[in-house]
Automatic annotation (TrEMBL):
It holds the Pfam family Aminotran_4. It comes from Calidithermus roseus. It is an enzyme of class 2 (transferase). Its EC number is 2.6.1.21. SUPFAM superfamilies: D-aminoacid aminotransferase-like PLP-dependent enzymes (SSF56752). This is D-alanine aminotransferase.
């Protein structure tokens, strides 16, 4: 990835620099957004930019560019870097601060990221997730505060887990980098409050509404363990089946029919979105 956008200017990756007084570095104060680029098209960009603005506003930062300007910066990056399949991250920091506490003018970074491709076998066999007691601060905002998630990386790897699911000791919220849903007695259940409004989950729920009843509500760890089927959603994974939670199988330990149908429906939905974008461009 040769170019990034720093505060509205296209610069070479090697020349992009932020001063050490930036509050994103010194205090972990900032918001970010992430989405996929497929076939040179930023997937669900309109939803992601809206969430980026909402997340920034939730921590009292204002994005210094219009949504149209942001989209222009993103499409320029895709073009100059010749991106066909990649990720793009937007980061808005608290800016430079003389006292390393008081926010200044925000700094905006837009940078491409190389992505791993998930094996199709994972969508047929499902993945394992582990649980961890943790409550995110301002969970409705996508902030750069990822201390717990990064710290748990080695544990996830050691236990062969694809994701860690947060709970407060009783109530379950979401994954460290994903949204969570499960199915019990034919009903899809997913959290309503106290979670990040996942973009992939948003689209998946619209599709699921045609396949099964949906309940958006609080649910317990015990309910999750008793699920018939389960899945996580994210920009990189799409809808990914979960067949094991900690040391317990989900249902019969196989990908269930309802989650399988949702996986296929979401993949078809993305294909339809890409075709529509190609036609409009």
């Amino acid at each position: 990835m040769e170019y990034v956008n720093l505060n509205g200017q296209l610069v070479r990756d090697a020349d992009a620099k932020i001063h050490i007084s930036d509050l994103g570095l010194r205090r972990g104060y900032g918001a970010f957004e992430f989405f996929r680029v497929l076939r040179g098209i930023p997937v669900f960009i309109e939803d992601h930019l809206e969430r980026f603005e909402n997340s920034s506003r939730a921590i009292d930062l204002e994005v210094p560019y219009s949504r149209a300007e942001l989209e222009g910066f993103i499409r320029e990056l895709i073009q100059v870097n010749e991106l066909l399949s990649a990720g793009i991250q937007l980061v808005l920091t608290g800016g430079y601060s003389e006292d390393i506490f008081t926010p200044g003018e925000p700094n905006l970074i837009i940078a491409p990221i190389a992505l791993r491709e998930y094996s199709p076998a994972l969508y047929r066999q499902g993945v394992k997730v582990i649980t961890h007691r943790h409550v995110r601060e301002i969970p409705e905002a996508k902030t750069i505060a990822y201390l717990t998630a990064v710290k748990l990386g080695p544990r996830m790897k050691a236990e062969g887990a694809a994701e860690v699911i947060y709970h407060d000791g009783k109530w379950v919220s979401e994954g460290a980098r994903s949204s969570l849903g499960f199915i019990k007695d034919g009903v899809l259940i997913t959290a309503k409050d106290g979670v990040l409004p996942g973009i992939t989950r948003l689209h998946a729920l619209r599709l699921a509404a045609k396949l099964m009843p949906i309940e958006q509500r609080a649910f317990t760890l015990e309910e999750l363990y008793a699920a018939d089927e389960a899945f996580i959603t994210s920009s990189t994974r799409g809808v990914m089946p979960v067949t094991r939670i900690d040391d317990r199988p989900v249902g019969n330990g196989q990908v269930g029919p309802r989650v399988s149908a949702l996986v296929k429906a979401f993949q078809a939905h993305v294909e339809e979105y890409l075709r529509a974008q190609q036609v409009s461009s």
